[in-house]
Amino acid sequence: MSPILSPQDVLKQAYESHDHVALSFSGAEDVVLIDMACNISEDVQVFCLDTGRLHPETYRFIEEVREHYGIDIDLLHPDADSLTSLVKQKGLFSFYRDGHQECCSIRKIEPLKKYLVNHDAWITGQRQDQSPTRVELPQYQLDTAFSDERRDLMKYNPLSYWSSAQVWQYIRSNDVPYNKLHDQGYMSIGCEPCTRATGPNEHERAGRWWWEEETQRECGLHIINLDTSDQ
Amino acid sequence: MKITFVKKILASGEPCPKCSDVEQRLVKTKQLAQIDEIVIADERDPESTGMILAKQLKVQRAPFFVVEDNGEQKVYTVYFKFAREVLGKQTSGADQAREILNDNPDLDYI
Predict the structure, then answer these.
(1) β partners of residue A226
(2) What does the pLDDT look like over A11-36, one tens digit per residue?
(3) How many CB atoms lie within 10 A of CB A70?
(4) Interface check B66 vs A, CB under 8 A
(5) Which of A129, A189, B8, B54 has CB atoms 3.0–4.6 Å from B16's, for a disulfide?
(6) Residues whose CB is less than 8 angstroms from the CB of residue B92 and which lie 6 or more positions away in sequence, other chains included
(7) How close is the nearest chain A Cα to the Cα of B92, in Å?
(8) CB pairs under 8 A between A and B
């Protein structure tokens, strides 16, 4: 098993190992990665998925980060034809009825896929404590979702072993700007229609797509069930 | 060539949403006629045909397709790859993105 690196060491590894590295910024507490990266590399390329449905506070925060660090932030927009087709067929709030995947695919995944084609590696703010499905999230991995026959894409998750508390300690200790929605009870911040503030005892993911049941996202064939056939 | 489409019934008894989505695509694109057999992997029944097939082929996600051709067997767990390679169908960027998200549900959380 590889030793656990500090987030800064993971970032160094990413920038030293690849020529074209993209840093993903969601407009939330993953801003700490920008703060760290700007102290490591002179060529920090940041992108943000502008779904068109972000909170006004998030757009203001993106601008604040751009000015604070003096960096360019590439805003990735949905493909116009795909989005037009979705809205024409299903309206602006189909996710409440049909689930969020179709909308997220068009507003996030499709532009992300196109963008990453030009990169060797990307950096995300994903953490193990964000979701039960991320408990084994490594600090770096081959990104099987966006690699293709022509090239391997690496994904770095420098904050994978950090807790939310550690992220916030870093933000406060280093005077890192943060999205004002956090002061209003938003632990996780996504699109405006799909994010709500969470209570003190709720998991941060409870504020995202709260109208959907967990089972709707489940598509694997349970090993546990497969194994029972031996009994 | 023989094509088998394996779709899942959840432990709750409900059909797997992704399997239903793929089946609807097969219907909509008139590709269902090219599927020779549809079998069920019922999570409540390890002896169901699909669960046994999944175990034999070491497949851990559904739906999946088994293509048998000239004595060779190939498994596809990604619909659009199957559609492109086996059925020769071009797929849109939005469709491919949907498949990526279905297979990597955490991606929408970035």
Answers:
(1) none
(2) 999 999 999 999 999 988 899 999 99
(3) 7
(4) no
(5) B8
(6) A82
(7) 9
(8) 113
Domain ranges of chain B: 2-109
Locate B22 and state its tokens.
């793929």
CATH classification number, A7-184, choose in 3.40.50.620, 3.90.1150.10, 3.10.20.600, 3.20.20.80: 3.40.50.620
Would the CB atoms of A146 and B43 count as touching at under 8 Å? no
Please list every residue in chain B whose beta carbon sits closer than 8 Å to the beta carbon of residue A26. Answer: 110
The answer, yes or no, to whether ipTM is higher than 0.85 is no
**pLDDT tens-digit series, residues B40-78:** 999 999 999 999 999 999 998 889 999 998 889 999 988
How is residue A78 written in tokens? Answer: 């949905």
Which of A100, A125, A221 is nearest residue B60 as measured by Cβ atoms? A221
Task: Return the structure tokens found at B11.
Answer: 């432990």
Domain ranges of chain A: 7-184
CATH number belonging to the domain at B2-109, selected among 3.40.1350, 3.40.30, 1.10.260, 3.30.70? 3.40.30
Question: Are the Cβ atoms of A221 and B107 closer than 8 angstroms?
Answer: no
- Tokens 């695919």 sit on residue: A105
Q: 166-225 in A: which are within 8 Å (CB) of B?
A: 188, 190, 205, 208, 215-223, 225
8-state DSSP, B72: E
